[in-house]
Design goal:
Layout: E1 8-14, E2 17-22, E3 30-36, H1 48-60, E4 64-68, H2 97-109, E5 116-120, H3 123-132, H4 136-146, E6 152-153, E7 157-166, E8 169-178, H5 192-198, E9 205-208, E10 215-224, E11 230-239, H6 254-257, E12 268-274, E13 284-290
Parallel strand pairs: 2-7, 3-4, 4-5, 5-6, 8-9, 9-11
Antiparallel strand pairs: 1-2, 3-12, 7-8, 10-11, 12-13
Helix pairs in contact: 2-4
């Protein structure tokens, strides 16, 4: 029986630039995309039930998935000064710790390998590459592709171009992702980071993770078109949360000792849909909603 042709195509332009081509756009068309980061999948404090719930919802919605860093926690290696026996899952308590992370992650993510498009680098993966000379995400993506998946590895920062095709018309939007930087202080909660990025990045959507906060806000922009018309558009700033619940019940651990509180869990849904208004040529609209907690 022939395989049904997908209405989209994911193309790697370079190690940190990808393009998602979306075809067959017409009345009633929509495409859901799950945006998330800081899964910390291998950490015992990862809320795996919530993570699986969101991945399963992606299957139900026929959504595509983009993950922007720290899929792994990977802090319990032999030479990691941060390591703690309390933070190792039983299946990873073996001499080939890093190998076991990749093997077990490949098993867990396999059911989603046909829609998990991109896994970007986070500071946890970069630390492993620096100290152990192995790229956990490349190894995971290779295993998923070997099993028939499509997952590609991105950079610590990078781009995804959404390219929409409707008949003879085409339109594109640019998503810039950066895993994040800084500590996300309790007062600023990482908001200063957006101002820094805006000094050199021009995009339709900007996404960060890293500091385990969560927010979404629009930034109106104006420019002049080639036909000398004033054009207004919205640039969306999206900070996705985490799946690692370090606060727990607020008893005693490193997170509590530092005076840090609970962090928002989950990511955001991005829904693109077609709705032609005011004679617009492309008619592509987007909206964001929080994942359920």
């Amino acid at each position: 029986m022939p395989t049904k042709k997908k209405p989209w195509k994911f193309i790697e332009k370079s190690g940190h630039v990808h393009e998602l081509q979306l075809h067959g756009i017409k009345k009633g068309w929509e495409q859901w995309i799950l945006l998330l980061a800081d899964e910390h999948w291998d950490n015992p404090k990862c809320n795996r039930d919530l993570l699986k719930k969101h991945y399963d919802q992606a299957v139900e919605r026929d959504a595509l998935i983009l993950s922007f860093g720290d899929l792994f926690c990977a802090m319990q290696g032999k030479f990691d000064k941060r390591s703690s026996k309390d933070d190792v899952r039983p299946e990873h308590q073996e001499g080939n710790y890093l190998d076991r992370l990749v093997e077990t992650a490949a098993e867990w993510y396999a059911p989603y390998a046909d829609r998990l498009l991109l896994i970007g680098q986070g500071n946890h993966e970069i630390s492993i590459l620096k100290h152990h000379e192995t790229n956990l995400l490349d190894r995971l993506a290779e295993r998923l592709r070997a099993g028939g998946g499509i997952t590609r590895t991105g950079g610590y920062a990078g781009w995804v171009r959404f390219h929409f095709f409707r008949g003879r018309h085409s339109h594109s939007q640019r998503l810039y992702y950066m895993h994040g930087f800084g500590g996300g202080g309790p007062v600023t909660q990482g908001k200063i980071d957006w101002n820094r990025l805006q000094t050199f990045v021009d995009a339709d959507i900007m996404i960060q993770g890293h500091v385990h906060y969560k927010e979404l806000f629009p930034v109106p922009r104006v420019s002049l078109s080639e036909t000398s018309n004033v054009v207004r558009k919205i640039m969306h700033m999206v900070r996705v949360g985490t799946y690692k619940d370090e606060y727990g019940t607020g008893g005693s651990n490193w997170h509590i000792e530092k005076g840090r509180g609970p962090r928002p869990m989950g990511g955001y849904w991005l829904r693109y849909y077609y709705k032609n208004e005011n004679g617009q040529d492309h008619g592509i609209h987007r909206e964001f909603t929080e994942t359920e907690t």
